[in-house]
Amino acid sequence: MKSRDTLVRLKRFQVEEKRRRLSQIEMMIAEFNRMAAELDREIASEEQKSGIKDVAHYAYSTYARAARARRDNLLHSADELKGQLEEAKALYDQASEELNKAQALEGRDKTPSPSELAREVSGFGVLRGARA
Predict the structure, then answer these.
(1) Tally of CA atoms within 13 A in the half-sphere of 25 that contains its CB
(2) pTM for this one?
(3) What gap in Å lies between CA 55 and CA 66, rounded to an integer?
């Protein structure tokens, strides 16, 4: 049953690949959120230095304005990654189900059926009688 073993190994590889993809997306989301929080602190610091918190004010800090745009882009990217995360979770679940099915088939092939067991037991009786 080498083909079943190969199938199970392939399915395990696919599940691991999907799990790695999930963890990569989760790490990227966490990193984007961390960077956005850092930019929030820098924006607040810059606004405090300049004393102007109104974004529409003509003297608003250029650095704070650029940091706001970068933060907004990071948060938008994190939101898009959350959609990809849901898709990746669905693919992971599907791959896990396929692995479970392949393992069940492999287990079924390895355990002899009751009729095969009965044949083996009756065969042992015949052999024992032949020796005597």
Answers:
(1) 20
(2) 0.71
(3) 11
